[in-house]
C-alpha cells in the first residue's frame, strides 16, 4: 500500500487514541483532507524541483510505534550538549521519555504538546497560536493531522530563560521503519528571551522519516535563538518545516547545521508582522556519500524598516547534492527594508552537485536588497602557503574549509554549542584538530 | 526653477503616448483566421517550399497540438486564442522589387516616420537592411557587396529555395520543433525571417540588420531567423523592432537560431520596441521569443538586448557552450512602464571544458509594471574549469511596480567557478541632490542616472544601435534621457 493511503487510513485509528472532543479535532480533520488532496510533493512542483522524496517514501513506515522503548542516559549522553545545564524535552520513538527529560512550569512552561493540547489551562494559547502560521501544504498538513506530541514552550512577558532548552528525538529502530511527526510550538511573549537546541537522532540503521513542524511566535521585542543540529545516520531522513511569526522589534535567529542524514529538507519561513524586526538564518552544510540537503527559505517582509540576513555555506563531497532555494519577498508597504542573502558553496568531488536559486521578489522601491551566490574551489595558493609551512594536505584542506564556514559560527551564542559544532566539523573533515585558532 | 520630482516624472510617464504608433494602410493578402493542417500546408505552398519543408512544418504542428501553453513565467495576461489569428499576411504589391524605387511609397513613408529611410540607410556606410514588413521581405540592400565575400544574407523563404541543403542541415538543430509551445507554433507557421551564412574565415565587413514590423491588424508575426557563422568567421547582426499602435493584443512568437562553428563569433543585438499598450494596460504586443545559440570549439556568441516595448515579454536568449573554450555573453536592459510585464533572462549551458559565460542584466521598472529576471547557469559534469559571472541589477521607480529575480544555478563539476550577484535599488535622493546642486535639473539628473545604470549594456551595442537604444529608453521612461 502506498504510504499516502496508509497514512490517510490510519488517521481514524489515530483519532481514537487522542481526545476527539478537543478543539483541535476539527483542525486535524481539516488537515487530513488537505493532505489527501495535496499528497506528497513531487519534482513537478517548483519548490521541489531539485529534491525528490521517492527514495524516502518507498519504505513501509509504521505510523504508530507498538511498544515503549527504554534507553539509558549513558548510551545517548554523547548526543546531548551535556556540559551545560539545560531544560530537556526528550522523545523516544515519538513518545515522551520522562527519565531523560527535565521540564518546568516554574514561571515559564517548558513541557509537552500532548498535555498542552489536553489541559484547559493551555487552551487560550493553543487557540491563539496552534496551527496559525503553518502553511497548508501537503507535508505540514500531514503533520497537523497527526499532531499529538512534541515540545510546548511558552515564555511569558519579561523573562530571561536562564538555561537553554534541548529538544531531542531518538528513534530506537525497534520498528523496521518508522515515521515520526513531532509538532512543536514556541510562544515567546514581550521582552523575553529563550535559546533552543533541537536534534533528531536515530540509534540504528533502520530507516526513519521525520516530518516535523515547529511554529515559533516572537512577540514584541522578544528574542529567540534556535539551533538545529542535523547529524543523523544515513538511514534517517528529515523534513523540517519551521514557521516563525515575528512582531515588532523582535529578533529571531535560526542556525541550521546539516552534517548527516540521508535526505534533509529544511523549510524555513519567516513572516515579519511588525516594524523594526530582525530575522537571521544561517547554516553550514558539510555532506558526502549520497546525502542530500535542501535548504528552502522564505522571508516575507510585510512592514517597513525590517532587516533579514541569510548566510548559508555548503561543502559537498562524493555524490552528495546540495540545494539552496532562498526567497525574499518585499511587499510594497515594506519600505526601508534591508535584506541580505548569501550562499557560498564548494564542490570537492566531481560527482557532487549543487543547485541554487536565490530569488528576490520586490514590490517596494526604497529598499536595499542584495544577494550573492558563489560556487568555487579552495584557493590553491592558500593551500600552497599552508603546505609550505609544514601542514599536511588533509589538515590544510580542513583548515581552509573551516575558515570558509567560520563566519556562520561567529553568531552562535552558546559556547558549548559552538564547540560541539566545531568538533563535528573536524570529525566530518576527518582531522583531529580543534580549530581553536 | 520649478522642482521636477519623481512624481512629476511618473505623471509624465503615465501620460506619455507611444510615439511610433501609426498604421500604414497597405493592401494585404491575409489568410482566413484559425490554424489547422490545411493552413500549415497553405503557408508552405504559398511560399513555394519543397516537400521536406512542408513535412517539417507539419511535424511541428503535430507536436504543437499536444503541447500546453506554458504558465510558469511571472506574467499575467489573457491567453491568446490561437484560432482567432490569421497566420499569413503579405504586402500585396508583388512581384518583388528590383530597386527601392519600386517599393510602395506608403511603405517607404512608414519607414521614414520610424527614422529609417532606406535611401539614407543605403548611403550610411556599413549597414545592409533586410526590411520585413509583416511577413515578406520586400527589400534587401547591399546584397552584392556581401555576395562578393560569399556571404549569404536573404530572407529565409528565399534561402529555402536557393540553399535548401544549408537550411535543411541547420534549421531546428538549436531550437528543435518540439522545444517549447511557441517554438513549435513558430516552426509550423513561420512566414518569413532572415537567413545568414558567413563562409569560413570571412569577417563580415558590415553590421547586418533587419527591422521587423507588425503591420496588419490581427496577424501574428512568426519570424524565423537562422544565422550560421562557419569556422573562423565573424558577424555582427542587428535586429530592431517598432510596431504601430493597435488595441487588440498581437502575438509575436519568433525563433532565432545562431550557430557558431569552430573559432567563429556572432554578435547579436536587439532593440525591441513593440507597442507596449496604453497607460491603462490595454492592447500591446505579446512577445514570446525563443532565441538560442550553439557554440562549437573556441566560438563565441554574444547577445545584447534592449527591451523597452511589448505588453508581455517572455524571452530568454541562450547559449549552449558545447565546444571547449567557447564563450557566451548576455547583456540586457529591460525597461517596463505602465502595465508592462517582462520575464526575461538567459540560459548558459556549459558543456565543454574551459567555457566562460558573462551575464549582465539591468531591469528598470516604473508605473505598475512587473520586471523579472529569470536565468539558468548550468555546469555539466564534464565542463571542467567552467566560469560564470552573473550580475542582475534592478532599479525601481515608484512603489507600484515590482522587480523579481529568479536565478537558477546548477553545478555538477567541482572545478566550476560561479558568481552571482543581484541588487535592487531606487534613484537616491542624494544622487538627485548632488546633480541639482551642480546645476543639473532633476529631469536631466534622472536621465543621467538611468543612463549610467544601463551604461554597461549600452556600451556593448554597435554604434548605430546605441544611439537608437538611448532614444528608446527616452520614449519608455521620460522626455530627456541621454
UniProtKB/TrEMBL annotation, chain A:
Pfam families: SUFBD_core, SufBD_N
InterPro entries: Fe-S_cluster_assembly_SufBD (IPR055346), SUF_FeS_clus_asmbl_SufBD_core (IPR000825), SUF_FeS_clus_asmbl_SufBD_sf (IPR037284), SUF_FeS_clus_asmbl_SufD (IPR011542), SufBD_N (IPR045595)
Gene Ontology biological process: iron-sulfur cluster assembly
SUF system FeS cluster assembly SufBD core domain mapped to chain residues: 174-404
SUF system FeS cluster assembly SufBD N-terminal domain mapped to chain residues: 2-167
Highest taxon in the source lineage: Bacteria
Protein family per UniProt: Belongs to the iron-sulfur cluster assembly SufBD family.
NCBIfam families: sufD (TIGR01981)
Official protein name in the record: Fe-S cluster assembly protein SufD
TrEMBL record, chain B:
PANTHER family tied to this protein: FES CLUSTER ASSEMBLY PROTEIN SUF, UPF0051 PROTEIN ABCI8, CHLOROPLASTIC-RELATED
InterPro entries in alphabetical order: Fe-S_cluster_assembly_SufBD, SUF_FeS_clus_asmbl_SufB, SUF_FeS_clus_asmbl_SufBD_core, SUF_FeS_clus_asmbl_SufBD_sf, SufBD_N
Residue ranges of every copy of the SUF system FeS cluster assembly SufBD N-terminal domain listed in the record: 131-204
UniProt-listed GO biological process terms: iron-sulfur cluster assembly
Membrane-crossing residue ranges in chain numbering: none
The species this protein was found in: Winogradskyella ouciana
Domain (SUF system FeS cluster assembly SufBD core): residue spans on this chain: 212-453
Protein name per its UniProtKB record: Fe-S cluster assembly protein SufB
Gene assigned in the entry: sufB
SUPFAM superfamilies referenced in this protein's UniProt entry, alphabetically: Stabilizer of iron transporter SufD
Amino acid at each position: 500500500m502506498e504510504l499516502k493511503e496508509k497514512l490517510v487510513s490510519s488517521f481514524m485509528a489515530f483519532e481514537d487514541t487522542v481526545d476527539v472532543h478537543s478543539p483541535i479535532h476539527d483542525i486535524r480533520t481539516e488537515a487530513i483532507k488537505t493532505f489527501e488532496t495535496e499528497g506528497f510533493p513531487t519534482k513537478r512542483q517548483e519548490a521541489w524541483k531539485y529534491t525528490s522524496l521517492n527514495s524516502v517514501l518507498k519504505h513501509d513506515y509504521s505510523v504508530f510505534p507498538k511498544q515503549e522503548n527504554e534507553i539509558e542516559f549513558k548510551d545517548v549522553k554523547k548526543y546531548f550538549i551535556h556540559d551545560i545545564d539545560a531544560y530537556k524535552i526528550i522523545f523516544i520513538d515519538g513518545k515522551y521519555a520522562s527519565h531523560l527529560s527535565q521540564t518546568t512550569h516554574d514561571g515559564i512552561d517548558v513541557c509537552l504538546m500532548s498535555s498542552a493540547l489536553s489541559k484547559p489551562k493551555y487552551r487560550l494559547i493553543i487557540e491563539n497560536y496552534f496551527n496559525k502560521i503553518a502553511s497548508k501544504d501537503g507535508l505540514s498538513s500531514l503533520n497537523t493531522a497527526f499532531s499529538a506530541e512534541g515540545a510546548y514552550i511558552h515564555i511569558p512577558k519579561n523573562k530571561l530563560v536562564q538555561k537553554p532548552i534541548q529538544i531531542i528525538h531518538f528513534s530506537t529502530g525497534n520498528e523496521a521503519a518508522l515515521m515520526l511527526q513531532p509538532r512543536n510550538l514556541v510562544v515567546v511573549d514581550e521582552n523575553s528571551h529563550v535559546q533552543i537546541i533541537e536534534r533528531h537522532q536515530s540509534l540504528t540503521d533502520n530507516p526513519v522519516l521525520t516530518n516535523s513542524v515547529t511554529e515559533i511566535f516572537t512577540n514584541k521585542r522578544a528574542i529567540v535563538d534556535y539551533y538545529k543540529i542535523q547529524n543523523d545516520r544515513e538511514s534517517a531522513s528529515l523534513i523540517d518545516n519551521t514557521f516563525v511569526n515575528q512582531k515588532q522589534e523582535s529578533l529571531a535567529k535560526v542556525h541550521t547545521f546539516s552534517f548527516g542524514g540521508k535526505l534533509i529538507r529544511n523549510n524555513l519561513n519567516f513572516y515579519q508582522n511588525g516594524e523594526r524586526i530582525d530575522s537571521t538564518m544561517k547554516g553550514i552544510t558539510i555532506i558526502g556519500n549520497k546525502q542530500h540537503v535542501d535548504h528552502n527559505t522564505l522571508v516575507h517582509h510585510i512592514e517597513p524598516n525590517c532587516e533579514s540576513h541569510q548566510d548559508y555555506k555548503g561543502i559537498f563531497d562524493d555524490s552528495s547534492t546540495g540545494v539552496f532555494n532562498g526567497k525574499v519577498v518585499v511587499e510594497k508597504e515594506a519600505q526601508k527594508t534591508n535584506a541580505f542573502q548569501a550562499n557560498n558553496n564548494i564542490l570537492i568531488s566531481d560527482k557532487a552537485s549543487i543547485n541554487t536559486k536565490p530569488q528576490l521578489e520586490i514590490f517596494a522601491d526604497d529598499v536595499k536588497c542584495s544577494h550573492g551566490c558563489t560556487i568555487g574551489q579552495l584557493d590553491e595558493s592558500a593551500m600552497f602557503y599552508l603546505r609550505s609551512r609544514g601542514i599536511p594536505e588533509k589538515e590544510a584542506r580542513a583548515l581552509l574549509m573551516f575558515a570558509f564556514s567560520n563566519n556562520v559560527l561567529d553568531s552562535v551564542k552558546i559556547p558549548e554549542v559552538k564547540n560541539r559544532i566545531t568538533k563535528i566539523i573536524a570529525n566530518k573533515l576527518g582531522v583531529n584538530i580543534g580549530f581553536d585558532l | 526653477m520649478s522642482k521636477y520630482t519623481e512624481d512629476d516624472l511618473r505623471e509624465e510617464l503615465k501620460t506619455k503616448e507611444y510615439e511610433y504608433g501609426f498604421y500604414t494602410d497597405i493592401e494585404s493578402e491575409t489568410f482566413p483566421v484559425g490554424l489547422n493542417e490545411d493552413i500549415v500546408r497553405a503557408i508552405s505552398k504559398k511560399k513555394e517550399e519543397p516537400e521536406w519543408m512542408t513535412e517539417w512544418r507539419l511535424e511541428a504542428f503535430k507536436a504543437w497540438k499536444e503541447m500546453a501553453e506554458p504558465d510558469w513565467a511571472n506574467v499575467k495576461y489573457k491567453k491568446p486564442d490561437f484560432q482567432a489569428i490569421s497566420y499569413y499576411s503579405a504586402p500585396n504589391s508583388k512581384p518583388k522589387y528590383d530597386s527601392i524605387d519600386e517599393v510602395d511609397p506608403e511603405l517607404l513613408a512608414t519607414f521614414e516616420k520610424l527614422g529609417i529611410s532606406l535611401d539614407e540607410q543605403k548611403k550610411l556606410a556599413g549597414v545592409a537592411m533586410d526590411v520585413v514588413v509583416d511577413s515578406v521581405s520586400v527589400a534587401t540592400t547591399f546584397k552584392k557587396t556581401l555576395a562578393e565575400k560569399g556571404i549569404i544574407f536573404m530572407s529565409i523563404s528565399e534561402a529555402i529555395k536557393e540553399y535548401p541543403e544549408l537550411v535543411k542541415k541547420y534549421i531546428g538543430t538549436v531550437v528543435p520543433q518540439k522545444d517549447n509551445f511557441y517554438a513549435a507554433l513558430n516552426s509550423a507557421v513561420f512566414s518569413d525571417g532572415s537567413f545568414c551564412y558567413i563562409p569560413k574565415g570571412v569577417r563580415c565587413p558590415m553590421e547586418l540588420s533587419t527591422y521587423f514590423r507588425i503591420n496588419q491588424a490581427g496577424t501574428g508575426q512568426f519570424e524565423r531567423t537562422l544565422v550560421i557563422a562557419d569556422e573562423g568567421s565573424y558577424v555582427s547582426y542587428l535586429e530592431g523592432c517598432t510596431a504601430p499602435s493597435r488595441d487588440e493584443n498581437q502575438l509575436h512568437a519568433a525563433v532565432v537560431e545562431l550557430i557558431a562553428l569552430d573559432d567563429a563569433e556572432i554578435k547579436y543585438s536587439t532593440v525591441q520596441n513593440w507597442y507596449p499598450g496604453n497607460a491603462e494596460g490595454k492592447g500591446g504586443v505579446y512577445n514570446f521569443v525563443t532565441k538560442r545559440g550553439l557554440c562549437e570549439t573556441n566560438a563565441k556568441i554574444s547577445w545584447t538586448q534592449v527591451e523597452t516595448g511589448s505588453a508581455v515579454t517572455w524571452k530568454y536568449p541562450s547559449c549552449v557552450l558545447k565546444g571547449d573554450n567557447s564563450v557566451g555573453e548576455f547583456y540586457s536592459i529591460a525597461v517596463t512602464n505602465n502595465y508592462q510585464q517582462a520575464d526575461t533572462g538567459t540560459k548558459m549551458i556549459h558543456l565543454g571544458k574551459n567555457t566562460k559565460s558573462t551575464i549582465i542584466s539591468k531591469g528598470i521598472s516604473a508605473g505598475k509594471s512587473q520586471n523579472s529576471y529569470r536565468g539558468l547557469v548550468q555546469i555539466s559534469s564534464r565542463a571542467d574549469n567552467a566560469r560564470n559571472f552573473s550580475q542582475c541589477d534592478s532599479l525601481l521607480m515608484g512603489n507600484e511596480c515590482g522587480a523579481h529575480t529568479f536565478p537558477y544555478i546548477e553545478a555538477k563539476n567541482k572545478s566550476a567557478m560561479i558568481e552571482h550577484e543581484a541588487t535592487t535599488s531606487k534613484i537616491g535622493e542624494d544622487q538627485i541632490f548632488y546633480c541639482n546642486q551642480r546645476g543639473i535639473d532633476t529631469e536631466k539628473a534622472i536621465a543621467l542616472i538611468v543612463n549610467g545604470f544601463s551604461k554597461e549594456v549600452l556600451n556593448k551595442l554597435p554604434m548605430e544601435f546605441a544611439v537608437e537604444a538611448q532614444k528608446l529608453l527616452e520614449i519608455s521612461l521620460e522626455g530627456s534621457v541621454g
